[in-house]
Structures are given as structure tokens and as C-alpha cells.
Fold:
Amino acid sequence: MSAFPQPFTALAAPLIRDNVDTDMIIPSREMRTTGRDGLAEGMFAPWRYTDADARIENPDFVLNQPEYRDAKLLLASANFGCGSSREHAVWALAEFGIKAIIAESFAPIFRGNCVRNFILPIALPRDVVEHFAACEVTIDLEAQTVTSDGATHSFDIEAEAKQMLAHGLDAIDLTLTQAGAIQEWLNADKPARPWVYLEHSR
Amino acid sequence: MARTLFDKIWDAHTVAKAQGGSSLIAIDRVFLHERTGAAALNRMAEMGRKVLDPARVFAVMDHIVDTRIGRGDGTLMQGGEGFITETRAACKAAGITLFDVNDRDQGIVHVISPEQGIVLPGLTLVAPDSHTCTQGAFGALAWGIGSSEAEHAMVTGTLRLERPKTMRVRFDGGLGFGVTAKDMILTVIARHGAGGGAGHVVEFAGDAVKALDMEARMTLCNMATEFSAMTGIIAPDAKTFEYLTARPYAPADFSDPHWQTLHSDTGASFDREIIIDAASIAPMVSWGTSPEHTIAIDQKVPEGPARAHDYMGLAAGDALAGTSLDAAFIGSCTNSRISDLRRAAAILEGRRIASSIKKALVVPGSLGVKRQAEAEGLDKIFEAAGFEWRMSGCSLCFYAGGEGFPECSRTISSTNRNFEGRQGPGIRTHIASPETVAASAIAGAIADPREYARSREAAA
Ligand code: SF4
Structure:
């Protein structure tokens, strides 16, 4: 895993459609193993290929166009990543090489998955996103700004997500630094809610 | 200060507040399924990490298991068997309770968790599945997460979260004849948009919610995720405690005073409130490719996104009722419990599905539901009507690459998602209640269940 690259400038690949769900990003039938790898090829399969089984490309699809074949920055619109919680959607995007997504809005589970896999999710108004299409865009994570064509826009990100992205921090390691507090909480909770703590395994 | 039910559960589970506004929230229960379970457990093992408390983690085989009678680990999905065998091995190694393919209690995760009394009021429960919100019907804070978050929850017993906003959706008055919880939630989404609940925990309340039985409450909460909410929740009441009493993992009784504290206080304030007159709700059917593309069955298709009209082959102004169908599906964590099957069977009894319907399935939500239905003879009613009777699982609620509907079928389905390709490439899905599915299968076209139910009542 690696931190979000800084400085970051990339050509923005526009996929500006509402409600793109995770099954479109990675169709269920493209998830063939229990692992996290080998997913990039099936990414957006219904749109990317005219024949998904034979992998015959649809030349009209944005990521098949020469300038976007190695896209690092994706533009999307409202409710991007809705539907199934499958993290494979983010794994596929990460494997493809996407480092940041700028969208009007994200589905919440998908957004969390992005951060955990070091893809920076940025929400900005629709007209701003549309304006970025096919432009060189520079993202400054530290300053929380996106700049293109001389215009700079600020974006919001939670302090912790920012820290994780900036330093490539693993969320579990971060939390385990508070193992003591967790144990204390459990010690106090056990007598109060004994029904939570199951003994038996079947 | 007056607090909402959500506030009470959140505050009670706050282990620590982190810098930047997020909190470390204790997680009481984790559920895994075979689609992502092995990936999470194997990665934990690779990293040398252990499940903090295996007795509070459960796994189930439901997503890609075969649902044909006589099944084993084999599945029609390419590579599917590997998900099953790897998950089984990983659960065993981690010491996690697994409801295996042919365990007598196997079923869809959100159906068996309540059946087993694993979800309880006031608990936090997570699963790498977006419909975990179903279990909010029991007054638990239950929501869907990603696979990495599931690892986080298993290893640390916590999740790091920003506090969501709260919304109350109040249904005043009573439902009309033939109108169900499915129609209630579809109405919320149709009126307020598929993004309407974003960032919120939605408490469902009001007379029409109190009147629902526990199974219908699960249907209502199930589609909170289609409303983009973090989850749905309903305050527990006598029905909740009665349902859970004596279930295998539930406490023997609910006499502890704690249980009576789990409700929103009078005067508690919500960030948003929506009020719906229950009597204004009709049986609902989706016309497009988002759950918000849903209308009352007697309405005409409105103007929507061109892609949705193209995909569904329906133009603005077309009547939805009477649209001819190729397939029908009753199942999924939305509508596959015994009461759903009873209501569908009541419409189908003594009738046959139209000859134009090429595939019609009933997939019980759990093997427990299946046994109960068979004891009541419902399987015979479904089979006599022309439906196939299956083993339990997610089945064709989503297309995994194995079994499918005939190419480009127009399908009426008791499921929760009508996205492009959700039930297979080119499949056009209309989501509706189980009774609407049953009535439509008989008609061979989208049909109003009230007409079928009424004629039955008149005959009785
Ligand atoms: S029944 Fe459908 S919606 Fe429910 S958990 Fe299974 S695949 Fe998901």
C-alpha cells in the first residue's frame, strides 16, 4: 500500500454519469477469485467491452481512449459507488492505477473503502467537476485544494482520512495504538451488558 | 437532554473520541459471508492478525451458493466453489461460527441473524454487505461496511467513524388494503430520491410502523441503503422482545431494565424529519434503473433519464400495469421470510402463472423458512402454480455469473435493486412486493395485487 502521491497532476478522465454502482465498476461475474488482484481487467466491463468474454473493447468508452488508458484521475457525478458494498470496486480502481476520484458525491461505504485503499475521494459541485473534464488537474492534499486552468477549489476531508492518505497509514495499526482504551471499555461493558458476550461456539 | 435511539447507542459504544471529529465505536457483532469472508480472513492471517473475540463473529454461505435442491459446494458460478471452500477453511482457522452450505440453519445473513437471535436491540452489528441495515428493525445499529473495515472490526473490536446525522421518517395512520412495508420504503425513495438519506441514520416511526410485524419491519429497514442512508432503525417494542425470546443466541429473557431505555426520548430532535401519510401509499413498482424510479402501480411512467428509458424499453407516458413479463422472482433479504411466502402463496393458490413466464423462482430466505413453508404446504402451492421451489440463498437477487434469467428477460422481482444488469446482462428488473410479483406472474404482465387478493376475499 502506498500513500497518495504528492505532488499530483493528472489528466482527468470524465465518466460523468449519476448513480454508477459498484456492480458497474466491477461486475460480480468479474470477481473470480477470493483475492484482491486481477480485478482491473474486469473494471467497467459492461461499458468497456462490446464483448466482455472476448475482451473486445468499445472504442467509445473513456478509458479505452489513448489519452486515458493510464488514467490516474477519474471524474464522476452523483452517488458514485452506490449499491453493493463490495470493496472489489475500489481494489479494481486501485489496481488500474486510479489515485483520486472527483465526484459530485459518493456512496458512503464506497468512500470509506477508497480511503482505506489510498484513493483520494473528493466531492465538489457538479459544474466544477464538469469543468475539469479532459483537463490537467493538480491536487494538493495538504492544502486540500484542486487546481485547474488557474482556478483553485477547496475540498473537505476528515483529518484522520487525510492523515491515512498522506502517510499511507494502515487504519488497524492506527487503532491498535488505542488498544488500552478498548480493553478498558470492554471491562466496563461486560458486567453492564452480559448478553453481548457470547460464550458458546456451535 | 432528550436523545434519539441512535444517540443512545452511539454514546454507549463510544470508546474514544479521536482528533478531527471521528470516534472509535465498539462493535458487538460482525457477520461475514463467503463472497468476501475468505478475502478478509486470509489477509488478516497474512498480516499475523487475530480475531479479537471469535465468539462474536459469525459467517454464512449465502451469496453464491447454488439454490437448486440437492446442492453441495459446487455452484454454477465460475470459480464459485473456491469462495466456499476457502471461506470454510478460513472460518475454521479463525474459530468463527459458520452457517455452512447445508447447515440446517443456513440462509441469507440478514434473515438468519434475527432467526438465531444474534442481532439484539441496542447492539452494534456490521457486515461487509450493504443490506445489513435490515437488522436495524430490531433496534440495533446495524450497517454495511467494506471488507477492510470488517478486518478492522474483527481485529480491534471497533470501527472509526464520523458521527452520522439523524432523520426520522414517520408514517402516520394506517396502510390501505394490499399495501405492504415494501411499498412504504419504495414510497420514501420515490418521493425523496435515492440519495435522500445520505449521511443519515433513519429512524422509522409512527403508527403504521408500530403496526408492522417484525418481518415487515425488516423489509422496511432493508432498503435504507437504497435511500443512501447509513442505516435504518426501529425502536424495539413488545413485538421485538417476543420475537427474540428463546432464540439460540438471545438472552433467556428481556427483564433487564436496559431494554426499556432503547427508544428516542420525547422531544429528541432529529436533523431531518419526513412525514408520510400511510393511507396515501399504493402498491409500488419500479419502472427504471434506480430504486427512485418507482411509481404507484396505476401511474404512468414519468420522464426520467434517457438511459433508464432505453434500458427498460419504457417511454414516458407508458402504463406500467399491463407491461408483459418473462420472469418472476420471490426471494432476497428484502422479501423471503415466511410471512412474505404466505402472502404470495395466498394469491397463487389454485392459480397458474402465465405461459409467457419462462422462469419463476421462489427462494426462501433460510432453510428454517423453507422447513416452515413446507410444513404449511406452501411449497406445493408454489409448484402447482408453476414456480420452482429452491434451497435458501441470495440466488438471482444478483447475477454472479452462474445461473441467470433467459437473455434480456423483463423480470418482476421482490428484491431491492433494479440497477442495469443487477440480475444479469440486459435483464430488466421491476422491483415490487411479493404479492405484486405473484399477481403479475399469474397475469404474465405487471398487475395490481389488490385485484387478485380482493377476488379471493370475495370468493371466501
Ligand atoms: S439477498 Fe440480495 S441484497 Fe440481500 S444480501 Fe443477498 S445479494 Fe445482497
